[in-house]
Amino acid sequence: MSSVRLEVLWSPVHKDKFITWGTEISLYETSEKCGDIRRTDYVDLSETSSARLLATNSSYHYVKAVDIHPMEGSEILLAIGQANGKVSLTTFGPSNFDFLGINGMDMVPKHPRQCNVVSWCQNDPQLIAAGLDRYRSDHCVLVWDIQSRTGAAVVAEMGLSDMAHSLTWLPDHHKTLVVGMNNKLLKMIDLRDPSKAACSSQTKAVYGVTAAPYSNFMLASYLESQVSIWDIRAFEKPVLTLLQSKPITKILWCPTRNNLLGSLQRDTKSIYLHYIQQMEELDHSVVERSIRPGVSHQITSFSWHPLDENRLLAITLSGLVTDTYVSERITLNWAQSTSIVWTHGQRTLQSVSCTDSVYEMLGDISALMKLRATRGYGLQYEMEENGDLVDDENLKLIWRWLGATKRLSDEFNINLPTRHLGIRSVLGMDKTTPSSISTKSEAVLVPFNGAGSNCNAKVYRSDVRDKALKLCDWSFIHNLPQLLHAVESLQSQGEVTKAVAVAVFGLQLNTAIKLLSSSTSEHTTISMALSGYSNDNESVWRDACIASRLKLNDPYLRAVFAFLTADSDNYNSVLEEEEMAVTDRIAFALAYLSDSKLVEYLNKLTDQLTVDGNLAGLILTGMSSSALPLLQQYLDSTGDVQSVAIFTMKGFPPSLLESNRAQYWISSYRELLDMWRLWDHRAQFDIQHNARTSLKPEQQIYVTCSFCMKTLSSNAFSRNKGPFPRTKVSCCPNCRKPQPRCSICLINMGTPSQSDASNCNSNNGGMKINTFSSWYTWCQTCRHGGHSKHIIQWFEDHQECPVTGCTCRCLSLDATSFTV
Amino acid sequence: MFESHSVSTDHKDLIHDVAFDHYGRRMATCSSDQFIKVWEMDSDNSIDGGWKLSATWKAHSGSVWKVTWAHPEFGQVLASCSFDRTAAVWEEIVSEQNIYSQTGQKHWAKRTTLVDSRMSVMDIKFAPKSLGLLLATCSVDGIIRIYEAPDVMNLAQWTLQQEVPCKHQASCISWNPSYTRPEVPMLAVGSDEAAAAGSSRVVVLHYSSYVRRWHKLENVPSVADPVHDISFAPRLGRSYDILAIATRDIRLFSICQLVGSAGTSRFEVTPFATLEDHNSTVWRVSWNSVGNVLVSSGDDGSVRIWRLSKQTSWKCVGTIKSDGRRLLLPEVMNAASLTLAKH
C-alpha cells in the first residue's frame, strides 16, 4: 500500500461532512444541488449532490490511519495514527476542544513503529485505541483516556511483543475490543482484564476486523480474497466464509441496514455487497451483488453514510469522489385495476392509484373497462345506448350497426339464426359460394351532374346491393333528395370533406364544388381544381391531379380525385385509401364495382380486417362464425374482453353463443366483473346472457318440510291460483306440521308469498314478489337462522349465533361478511 | 408535478414482497424483520396512500421472502415462505376476546406449517381457484412442491401432492391463471443460481390429467442468466398465454396450447419480446388485470411500465424513479397516451 492511496470517511456525527486523506487531509461539506445553478467552489458528487472544500490540513505526513471523534454536537476532531506510531488529535480550525487542551494532543508509544489502526470507542468517546506494529518488548495495542487529569493517559495495554493488524470495539459490550494479531489470531479482550484474552480464534483472516452495528454478535474480517463472518458466541471458526475473485482491500458494515457488508477488491470499479442472512439457530447464508458507482477509475476506498439509507461515498485513484445510492431490490405489485405499489428503500412503499391522472397515461385498459362497466355498458337493451356510453368511434360504429341490423331483420322479418347479418351474407357470399354473389346486378349509366353533357358513370344496382348499402348507412347514394340531405347533415357536423366525397360519389359535382367554395380558403382552392374536371383521358388536368393527389392530407379529398381520375372501371386507388372509414369504402365498392370485382375486393378486405383485428370487419362478416377469429384478434391486441364478451352475448345466435370460445370470453368477463366487486352488473349480465341461450339455469334452492321432506313451495303454488292468494304458509301444506321458528322473533317461518296482483300482468305471471327481509336465512355451520332482516340486525351488534347456548360465530365464518 | 403516495410501513428491515388480495383492497407486506403486516384500503384516509395497517405479527424465524393471498372463496387466507425453511398458511379469524365490542377484533392464526423443505423456501403461490385449494412452493434445494388441501374448510390439513425436482436452486414460481377448465394447468419456475453455465434457468411444468402428474415442458427457450421473478399474464379471453421473466432484462414468452385430435395438448413456447431498457438486473415483474400492461422494477432504481401495442410490439410507456418523484414519459408515446387518457 503506497502512501498516496486515497481514503474517504463520512463523519459519524455530521450528516453533511466527510474527509478525504492521502498526502493531506481535506474536509468537505455536501449539499443538495438546487436547480441548475453551478457554483464554482462546489464539486459534483452525483446528479443531486455536490461538495465544497472547507479546509485542508497538510501538517501531518505519513498518515496511516484516521478516525473521527464520535461525539454528538461537537466539531470534527480527528485522531491521526502516523508511521512513527504517534497518534495526534487535531481539528480544522478553532473548536471547543481547544479549551480542553485536547486539540493538538499527541500520544506517543514508548518505541516508535508504524500505527496500523486508530479507533474511538463509540460508547465511551473519551477512549481511543491504537494498534501498532511489533516491537520486542512493548505492547501492540494501547488504549488512552484523553480526559484523564494528566492529559492523555494509557488505561490499558495489551499484546506484549505482538503485532496488531486491525481492531474494533464491540458496540454493545462496554470496553471490549477485538484485535487481529500476528497474522494468525483474532483476540477478544476485555479492558477490565486486559492481561488475557476473553476468547480467541486461530485464523489468518486478521485484517479489517469490524463489528456489525445491529447485531451483538457479528464480526467480519478478511484475508486476501476471502471474507470471514464471525459470531462471537461461536468464535472457534467463522460461521461463513465468502470467497471473492480478487484480493480485498476494505470491508465495512452498512450502518443503516441489518447485516449488510460492503467490500472492496483491489483494482476494480465495483463495490461488492453481501447480505448476510441469519437465523436464530446460527444458520447463515449470503446474497451477494455488486454495484458500480459509475466511475471510470479504480476505486481505492469507500465509506457508508452514517444515517442516510444506503448512501455511500467512493473515491478513486485520481481523487474523484462519487456519492452513490445503493438502490435496494424493488419489489412491486399491481392491485386489480386500482393501484401499483413498489418499495422505495427498505421500509417505504410508494403507490400510484387509479385516481391519479398518471395512471390513465399508463393505458391500463382494465381501468377504462371498469369505468364503462359502472356506467352500465353492455346492459342497455337498445344497442345504440351502449354505444353512447363509450368514446371509442369503432365501438360506437359496431353498436350502431348492431342496432341497424336488428331493426332491419325485424322489418324484413328475416327468419335466420342470426339477426345481425353481415354484408357478405346479405350479398349471398356465404361459405358455400364465397366467390359469387347470389343475385346478378345490372349496370346502369348515370349522368354525372355538373361534369358536362356527355359524361356518364357506370353504377351497379341490385336488391341485395341496396340492402347492403343500407347496412353501411349509404342508402342515399341512389336517391338524390336523400343524398342532398345526407350532404347537408355531414356539413353541419363539420365533416366537409366527407360531404364532398358523398356528393362526388353520388355524381353531384356541382354540389361538391359549392360545398368546398363556401368552406375554408384551403378548400376553395380545391374547389377550383374540382371545377376544372374533364373526363378526357389525355387531359392536362388529369395528369396534374394524379401527380398532386398524394400531397393532400385529407383521405376523402384524395379519394375524390382518385375517383375522378380513375381509368374507366379501375377504382383501386379509391378502395385502397385506408384512412377512409371502412363502411365508406365498402359502400363505394357496392356502388361502382362489378360483381366479380366486388367479390374479390370484399374477400380481400375481410381477410385484411380480420388480421388487423379491426372491429369494422364485423359489418362484413356479421355475427357469424367467421366473426370469431376477428374478435379474437381484436381481443389479443387490445385486451378489451369486455366489448368482445358483450358483442358475443348480444349478437351471436344461440348456437355460436354456446361454443367454447364464446363461453370462454363470457366467463372471463364475468370473472372480471366479480373482481371489481360489481356483482349487480354481473348478475344483470347473467340474466341477459341466459335469456339468449337455450340453456335455462336450473332451480337451485328448494324449500322442503323438515318432517315429510315434501317441497313447500309447489304445493303452496298449486292452491294459489285463485284471485285471493294466501299470504302465509306457516305450516307444511302436506303434513300440517309447523315450520321452524325464527330464532329472533320466535314466529314460525312462513312464506308470505303473495303474488302481488298489481305487478302480476300476463307477461310475468310467475314472478313472486317477496320482500327480502322476510326470507329464510340460516348459518351453514350451526343450522340456526331466521328472517334475514332480523338476522342482519342481530349481527350488527353481536358476534355469536342468536340461539341460546350456541357459540357459533356465524357471520364471521361467511367469507363475504367482510363486505357487509 | 407528479408525486406518488408514500406509505411508511414501519418494518424494521427490507421489505421483500407486497401482495394484494383478489379485489385489490387488502395488501400484505413481508420483510427480513420476520414480520407480516396486513393493510386495508381506506379511501377516506389520505395519509399513507390510503392504506391502513390492520394486523402485524412475527410470522417466521428468518427473513420472510414472499406472501400471497388465497381466493376469497376460501376465506381470508394468506400463505408465506421464509428463510427458516418453512412455509405457513394463515387465516384471519375473529378473536375470542372482546365479544361485546362493536367490531370484532380480528387476528391471524397459523393454520399449518409446511416443513418438507430442507432449505430456504423462496416462493409460494396459490393455484387458480378452479383447481381447488392448491399451493406450490419452490426452494433453494431445487424442489417444487405442490400441496393440496382436500377439505377447503380445514386449512390445517395439507397433503403433499407431488415433488418435482429441478436442477437448480429455485427462486420464483408462477401459475398460469386459467379461469376456465379446459386449459391445462401450468407452473413456471425460475432459478437465480449464478453458477451452472449453459443450462436454462426457466422450467415450465404442465399437469397431465390422465396420469395426474406434473411434467416438464421440453421445448422452452433457454434463459442463460439468473432469473429473479417470473409471472404469467392473466389470460382473460386471449388466445395464448404470456410468461414474463425478470432476468438480466425482461423476456416475454408466448405459450400456445394446441389441443390435438385425441384430446392431448401440445404446447408451443416461442420468444415474444425482449425488453432491455433497464440496462441492469430486473428484480420484479407484474401484470395488470388484463395482461397487456407490464410493470417492472430494476437495479437502475426505476419502475418501468410497458404496454403491448399493435399485437406484437412492446413499448415502454413510462418510467418512474423509485422515490416516486420523477415520471418520464417517452415523447413518442405521448400522443397515444393522451388519446387514451381522453376516454
Outline the structure in words.
The complex is a heterodimer of chains A (820) and B (343). With 820 residues, chain A is an alpha+beta fold. In chain A, 29% of the residues lie in helices and 25% in strands. A five-stranded antiparallel beta sheet of chain A has the order 1-2-3-5-4, with no helix packed on it. A four-stranded antiparallel beta sheet of chain A has the order 6-7-8-9, with no helix packed on it. Chain A has a four-stranded antiparallel beta sheet with strand order 10-11-12-13, with no helix packed on it. In chain A, a hairpin with an 8-residue loop joins strand 16 (185-190) and strand 17 (199-202). In chain A, helix 12 packs antiparallel against helix 13 (555-564). The relative contact order of chain A is 0.04. Chain B is 3% helix and 50% strand. Chain B is mainly beta and 343 residues long. A five-stranded antiparallel beta sheet of chain B has the order 22-23-24-25-26. In chain B, strands 2-3-4-5 form a four-stranded antiparallel beta sheet, with no helix packed on it. A four-stranded antiparallel beta sheet of chain B has the order 6-7-8-9, with no helix packed on it. Chain B has one helix and 26 strands. Chain B starts with a strand and ends with a helix. Chain B folds into two domains: 12-165, YVTN repeat-like/Quinoprotein amine dehydrogenase (Methylamine Dehydrogenase, Chain H); 214-343, YVTN repeat-like/Quinoprotein amine dehydrogenase (Methylamine Dehydrogenase, Chain H). Classes of the chains: A alpha+beta (820), B mainly beta (343). The interface between A and B is large, with 83 and 94 residues. Chain B: WD repeats lie at residues 8-49, 275-309. Chain B: InterPro entries: Sec13/Seh1_fam, WD40/YVTN_repeat-like_dom_sf, WD40_PAC1, WD40_repeat_CS, WD40_repeat_dom_sf, WD40_rpt. Chain B: It is found in: Lysosome; Nucleus envelope. Chain B: This is Seclosion hormone1-like (S. cerevisiae). Chain B: Keywords: Lysosome, Nucleus, Protein transport, Repeat, Transport, WD repeat.
